[in-house]
Amino acid sequence: MTVNKKVLILSYYWPPSGGSGVQRWMYFAKYLKQLGWEPIVITVDEYQAAYPVMDPSLLEEVKDIQVIKTSTREPLRFYSLLVSGNSQSGIPQAEVKRKNLFGKAAAYIRGNYFIPDARKGWIPYAVKAAQKVIREENISHLITTGPPHSTHLAGLQLKKQFSLNWWIDFRDPWTDVFYNTSFYRTAKAKQKDEAFEKEVLHFSNGVILTVGGELQAQLQQKAPDQRFVVLPNGFDADLMKAIPLAQPKDVFHIVYTGILTHNQNFSELLQLLGGVSKNQPILLSLAGNISHEIIDEIKLCVPQVEVVYHGYLSHHEAVRLMKKAHLLLNFIFAGAQTQMISGKLLEYLATSIPVLSIGDPLSAAGEFLSQGTAAVMLNVTDAKEIQRFIIKTASEKGSLFNNFPELTQWSRESLTKRLIDDVLSTQQKTH
User: Fold this and answer.
1) 3.40.50.620, 3.40.50.2000, 3.40.50.300, 3.40.190.10: which CATH number matches 6-234+411-424?
2) Which residues of the chain have pLDDT under 50?
3) What's residue 424's pLDDT?
4) S-S: 58 plus which of 15, 70, 93, 381, CB 3.0-4.6 Å?
């Protein structure tokens, strides 16, 4: 019997959207295609979407993938206009600003009226497009990925209508995500969101997580009979090989890439850098979705350190910047210590450059990092150990590298093979 190797993927984020959220299924689709599968992606038209950042360079990675773009109707655009004055900028990522009465009101609206999230207006458009594809292509495999977790509600409708092997991908937690506590949610709003999550967990064939541990335990309590597969974010081996190391010799170069908010503990580390800079010239390069307020705060905190903000870089250019570093920095979001191992951390490890991450050493990410020969996760209060690691890295710059065991198993291609074996090859279940 011929196996149907077509898989339908519903993902709100898709190139030319930039940022970390888009890369997971972009790369899964890329390598599914190379490994003999036929991924078909349904996403939102980028001209109607509220993407925080754009990265057109990512289109090259998925040029051979069949992509269907739909319309959407989102309260998010109105909310974005209220918060930022720009309907396209979207909701601030990983941060809820409540400094004034307007910010508190906006947080309340976001938490109590956008359930499960502000992109729920995409659901009917995604469902309609998916129904057509499922019938025409005889689809039996469906993946929905969130956030936005409203995407899973589209999958729920499709699962109830068709015989599908439907798996839900949690790139981040749903009701247990760390920033939900900032939304002034009413009991009714919480119950509604939890009911959505429970129904999705019940009807899906299985759950894909980026990290196990506490998050998996939380979800297993809600769905004891459900199947869980942990597929971390990874790194693209071809990209890493294509970009050479280019570390400067006359300065200690520290690099941070990604989102940076006040939900991350960076101030204490900056003060330590100021002390180290008295004996060692330091260049601190930052790239990503970072507010000018935070950039100014950093420059004020370490006036003796040369601080360069590169803005948002394409994925290729971000990796190029990483490979110019002697030390790579990471800050775990407060309240999310146990919830994720970011794709950025995997890319950091793939560069072989030393990594200093501020967070819980006993978390899944902390224990993962500890396998490296020059990679640590340290509590922000552990000033002596942080300073010791920085000084060691500075004194051995250019000669100290981070070796990580069996790194190839975390490549995007290897993880896609696991996706095929552990998810797409499983049997359907009915309710």
Assistant:
1) 3.40.50.2000
2) 1, 94-95
3) 95
4) 15
Please provide the DSSP assignment of 126-166 as one string: HHHHHHHHHHHHT--EEEEEESSTHHHHHHHHHHHHS--EE
114 with 79: CB under 8 angstroms? yes
Are domains 6-234+411-424 and 237-406 of this chain identical in fold?
yes
Predicted confidence at residue 85, as pLDDT, reads 53
Reported CATH class of domain 237-406: alpha beta
The pLDDT value given to residue 1: 42
* Domain residue ranges of the chain, discontinuous segments joined by +: 6-234+411-424, 237-406
User: What Å distances lie between residue 241 and 319, 349, 374, CA to CA?
Assistant: 11, 13, 20
Q: Residue 99 contacts by C-beta under 8 Å, 6 or more apart in sequence?
A: none
What would the two tokens of residue 254 be?
């520290």
What's the pTM?
A: 0.90
Helices 412-419 and 20-34: crossing angle, nearest 10°? 70
Cα 62 from chain centre: 18
List the structure tokens of 192: 């509604």
Phi/psi at 175 (5° precision): -70, -20
* CA–CA distance, 415 with 25 (Å, rounded to integer): 11
